[in-house]
Write a structure and sequence with these properties.
By secondary structure, the protein is of the alpha/beta class. The chain is built from nine helices and twelve strands. It has a six-stranded mixed sheet with strand order 5-6-7-3-8-9, with helices on both faces. Strands 2-1-4 form a three-stranded antiparallel sheet, with helices on one face. The mean pLDDT is 90. This is ABC-2 type transport system ATP-binding protein.
Length: 286
């Protein structure tokens, strides 16, 4: 096992390249994930997210570039390294006739210092299903089981590939709380997601990847200079129509409108571009 200092990033990637035949999936990516942060990878279908993550997990061979994950090259890492890394792939969650409790207990044996299976099952919200056979679980419950298997080994670094696909809104919120708890306990988390609100809710920083290349790395708040983007003020006029104005000085505009009304302005809203607006512009789909 390699020794890491706290200052060393959890993940350092430089010039990463991977092609499948003529199809270049990852075209020279540089990336750094700090220890303890929640890092989200966003990008359209086929952008290269899963390929990148699978290289970081040691499941895929790269064509070029250097990769260090928890101080080791994942392609040549040993079992001790693997025990420090938790992985939640895109959808497995079914283990024939075994129960949830049996599966989690079985996986716990693969790790040198696993968490308590019952506690982990409760943590992912499956306590009531501990004795249920996995093939009877709903889609969202199977994903929860995947997450349980990803964290049973008490990983330092957790990879989550589209973890909340198929979750209902309540389950998604519960999952976010779980990720925040893990993060607060010091786990470094890398997640890919198609849900912009998920990235916004969880990520300290995010990377946008398109056609195998990084488009941006930023905090969710600062992406595309969103904080300083023009605001849109809208309100209802005396005639009942909706008026809408884009402005870089929304406070002054609202004051001006309010003065004209001498009271509450009907239907008043002030909005900035959402993370999704900025993201869609960035990947060129607008
Ligand atoms: N095993 C494979 N063999 C051949 N081509 C592949 C393979 N895996 C991925 N690709 C191709 O590499 C590119 C990147 O795919 P990847 O799965 O990394 O994208 P992604 O960003 O994870 O997409 P999604 O959001 O749909 O999961 C795509 O063009 C895909 O078709």
């Amino acid at each position: 096992m390699s020794v890491m200092t706290q200052e060393e990033p959890a993940i350092a990637v430089s010039g990463l390249r991977k092609a499948y035949g003529d199809n270049v999936a990852v075209a020279g990516v540089d990336l750094e994930v700090r220890r303890g942060e929640v890092f989200a990878l966003l990008g359209p279908n086929g952008a290269g997210k899963t390929t990148t993550v699978e290289i970081l997990e040691g499941y895929r061979h790269r064509d070029g570039g250097t990769v260090s994950v928890l101080g080791a090259d994942p392609e040549h890492a040993d079992r001790a390294w693997r025990a420090r890394v938790g992985i939640v792939l895109q959808g497995t969650g079914e283990f024939d006739d075994l129960t949830v409790g049996e599966v989690v207990t079985h996986f716990a044996q693969f790790y040198p210092s696993p968490d308590d299976p019952a506690a982990v099952i409760a943590r992912v919200g499956l306590a009531a299903k501990a004795k249920a056979r996995t093939h009877t679980l709903s889609g969202g419950q199977k994903r929860r089981l995947d997450v349980a298997l990803g964290i049973i080994g008490r990983p330092e670094l957790l990879f989550l590939d589209e973890p909340t696909t198929g979750f209902d809104p309540e389950a998604r919120r519960e999952f976010w709380d779980l990720i925040r708890d893990l993060s607060a306990a010091g786990t470094t988390i890398v997640l890919t997601t198609h849900y912009l609100e998920e990235a916004e809710a969880l990520a300290d920083r995010l990377a946008v990847i398109a056609d195998g290349a990084l488009v941006a790395v930023s905090t969710p708040q600062a992406l595309g200079d969103r904080q300083n983007a023009p605001a849109t003020v809208s309100w209802r006029t005396a005639e009942g129509t909706v008026e809408r104005k884009e402005t870089s000085t929304p406070t002054a505009l609202v004051a001006e409108i309010a003065a004209g009304y001498g009271g509450e302005v009907p239907g008043l809203t002030v909005t900035r571009p959402t993370l999704e607006d900025v993201y869609l512009t960035m990947i060129g789909h607008r």
